[in-house]
Amino acid sequence: MTRAISGYHLEGSVPLIFEKGAPGRRGYRLRERAVDELPLDELTPPEHQRQQDAPLPEVSELEAVRHFIALSRRNYGVDVGFYPLGSCTMKYNPKVNELMASLPGFAHVHPYQPEETVQGALELMYNLEKYLCEIAGLSRATLQPAAGAHGELLGLMVMKAYHESRGDHHRVEVIVPDSAHGTNPASAAMCGYKVVQVGSNERGSVDVEQLRALVGPNTAGLMLTNPNTLGLFEEDILEIAHIVHEAGGLLYYDGANANAILGRARPGDMGFDIVHFNLHKTFSTPHGGGGPGAGPIAVREDLVRFLPVPMVEKDGDRFYLDYDRPDAVGRIKAFYGNFGMLVRAYTYIRTHGPEGLRRVSERAVINANYLMRRLAGHFELPYDRHCMHEFVLSGVRQKKQGVRTLDIAKRLLDYGVHAPTIYFPLIVDEAIMIEPTETESKETLDEFVDIMLRIVREIEEDPDLVRNAPHNTPVRRLDEARAARQPNLCWCPPVEGAAGE
Ligand SMILES: *Cc1c(COP(=O)(O)O)cnc(C)c1O
Predict the structure, then answer these.
(1) How high is the pLDDT of residue 480?
(2) Is residue 7 packed enough to be buried (19+ CB in 10 Å), middle (13-18) or exposed (0-12)?
(3) How far apart are CA 250 and CA 315, in angstroms?
(4) How far apart are CA 281 and CA 85, in angstroms?
(5) Hey, whose CA ends up nearest to atom 4 of ligand 1?
(6) Per-residue pLDDT, 41
(7) Predicted local distance difference test score (pLDDT) of residue 34
């Protein structure tokens, strides 16, 4: 029997909670006195009340607990094991962040509360903005965007507002390197820009001569990440900034993964005008599963007037929300952003301090270089340079032995390790992109190397073992295309008397 759970098509019988239990089974909870003391008709008009009970399963407390624990054990997260997903910075999310975010004064605030009653929350946002500006080397920031891609869109809207304010309506092109994260060209297109691609040279850096030929009176800006998605520092960044600025364009920094530069180099000093950060990568707020993220953007002084409303301002000792911003691009998110994520990122920055953040970048880079050097003899290393927080191997050698990078990634799952990012960046054949992060111990890194080397041996001795992996996971190879195109996210109660799933 095939059954669908959460978009995955599973072979075999997986008991769902809806199929457990029996009429009359119950769990118990102490009742809280609250709005439920009001008569139901006062809370919900009778015409909106359900006429029949929902067909929910009736299960005991133990059955419910076992169900959810069983589901959680099918999941994988950084609290379970090593998660070297390049470009995604799956670092440990310190529990103190959660503790702070759950303080009632933060967790229970309402966005419509009067400003006098949320001074602490506003102060936190005000200070977080200051810290991010210091890290970016830029003037002001907004915390509103809910993701990196959302920050990119806002940053490009600011870019557009800037050019239009100068009457530069012909600046319709955004240049993006061929190594860029897919969200960069997508955001530019979403913002109505024409995307122009600039190639990389044999060292994995932006081809400066090509860039020089591409910029011109139609250039709105260049989107760049530094270190780039190959984990390599763009050594020509000052010249690149000069070329773009001289042509009248702006420089956009994709700072989703700022782990390599924290406290060491500032995008503003490199010549960038607009920056987004992913709090859910660099600043340790949890991510994955499409959960709430945060992608604040920071900008240079003359772009501040375009940032969306409201901004948190300070008047003497009092914090307030400023909506009086006639040049603002509008609003990009309801209220003030994903506030819980802001509390977590603020906590992360405060618990580390400037010295601690510098240690983060130091260790992230050392961990990545250590792994790269230990694996380099066994896999192709297309760009043999010092890497920053991540590096990219190529599985071309293994491909010649009949095993693809996808197979290696699947085999890693059998060993209880999350797979690295694969087939990205696009310019590396059979790419394996590894980002260990700073929070992993040397023992964990060594264990990962041992597993990778064991897989290399398996490819030589028993390639089918790797080609048919995974063998130990709750599900084998999923039909990802079908899961994405026909997601089946709901369970429906079986129709009485009907056969089938
Ligand atoms: C993750 C990432 C993004 C997009 O961030 P989201 O929060 O997933 O939208 C953009 N650029 C780079 C380099 C990234 O790694």
Answers:
(1) 84
(2) middle
(3) 32
(4) 11
(5) 148
(6) 84
(7) 59
Query: Which helix (DSSP H) or strand (DSSP E) does residue 177 occupy?
Result: strand 173-177
Any idea what DSSP says for residue 200? B
Q: 380 C-alpha to center of ligand 1: Å?
A: 26
Under a CB-based contact definition with an 8 Å cutoff, are residues 223 and 175 in contact? yes
pLDDT digits (tens, 9 = 90+) for 374-397: 999 999 999 999 999 999 999 999
Structure-token pair, residue 403: 């095993």
The structural domains of the chain, ordered by start, are: 1-74+476-501 (no CATH), 120-352 (3.40.640.10), 359-475 (3.90.1150.10)
Query: How far does residue 363's CA lie from ligand 1's centre (Å)?
Result: 22
Strand ranges (E), 263-380: 274-277, 297-299, 311-315, 318-322
- pLDDT score, position 43: 82
Position 142 scores a pLDDT of 98
The best mutation among 254, 421, 437 to test binding of ligand 1, ranked by most ligand atoms within 8 Å of the C-beta, falls on: 254
Strand partners, 38: none
Q: Are 318 and 121 in contact (CB under 8 A)?
A: no
CA torsion sign, 241 to 276 to 228 to 368?
A: positive
pLDDT of res. 13 = 45
**CA–CA separation, 83 and 413 (whole Å):** 11
pLDDT of residue 72: 86
The strand pair at 318-322 and 421-422 is best described as unpaired
The span from the CA of 221 to the CA of 259, in Å, is 24
Surface-to-core class of residue 178, CB atoms within 10 Å of its CB (0-12 exposed, 13-18 middle, 19+ buried): middle
Q: Which two tokens stand for residue 69?
A: 């624990």
Q: Bridge partners of 173?
A: 194, 219
pTM for the whole structure: 0.90
Strands 140-142 and 421-422: unpaired
Q: Which residues contact 30 (CB under 8 A, 6 or more apart)?
A: none
State the distance from the centre of ligand 1 to the C-alpha of 217, rounded, in angstroms: 29
Tokens of residue 447, six digits: 């264990």
Cβ atoms of residues 280 and 286 within 8 Å: yes
Low-confidence ranges of the chain (pLDDT < 70): 1-16, 32-37, 289-290, 493-501
Cβ burial, residue 356 (10 Å; 0-12/13-18/19+):
middle
Secondary structure (H, E, C), 437-458: CCCCCHHHHHHHHHHHHHHHHH
Q: Which ligand 1 atom lies nearest to the CA of residue 293?
A: 7
pLDDT at position 3: 37
d(CA 129, CA 28): 45
- Reduced to 3 states, what is the DSSP secondary structure of residue 333? coil
Q: Which helix (H) or strand (E) holds 9?
A: strand 8-11
Find the 225 Cα to ligand 1 centroid distance in Å. 10
